């Protein structure tokens, strides 16, 4: 059964953030943990750590430190929606997050979206607000089983900045 949920996790960024990574909307597990990519089967942290040759952060404080160290800002495209569990396919009644809160404070050089759902909603609701395109990367979700970690890593290397 669908329920209307307002995004409970604040954006993660600081003035030194250079890359913004956007998901679509947090999963049930992420909402429970109040941080991004909380489901143990999601490959985001494993892939991001491999991109930077770093250890996979296991705790929320370690994840925050990892993002800060690598100048990564993180949030989601959708600010509220009707959703069933964690199913991106069930999303309706979308209201987008205002990314300008991040873009005004940080020197974001590139915006990446994690998967086609996030990209579709970014294009539909957010791109005209920011005036900036986003690069669509393959989803790190376990539902995207066709993409191995090695294949994901090849595409996700784009997030590494100078």
What report would you give on this structure?
With 162 residues, the chain is an alpha/beta fold. The chain has one domain: 3-Layer(aba) Sandwich (Uracil-DNA Glycosylase, subunit E). The chain is built from 6 helices and 7 strands; from the N terminus they run ββαααβββαβαβα. The strands form 2 sheets. A 4-stranded parallel sheet has the order 3-2-6-7. Helix 2 crosses helix 6. The radius of gyration is 15 Å and the shape is globular. The mean pLDDT is 95.
Number of strands: 7
Percent of residues in helices comes to 25-40%
The CATH class designation is Alpha Beta
Q: Number of helical runs?
A: 6
Mean pLDDT: 95
**According to CATH, what is the topology?**
Uracil-DNA Glycosylase, subunit E
- The whole-angstrom Rg is 15 Å
Q: What's the number of structural domains?
A: 1
The class by helix and strand makeup works out as: alpha/beta
N→C terminal distance: 45 Å
Query: What coarse outline follows from CA principal-axis ratios?
Result: globular
**Beta fraction:** 15-25%
Biggest beta sheet attributes: 4 strands, parallel
CATH evolutionary superfamily: Uracil-DNA glycosylase-like domain
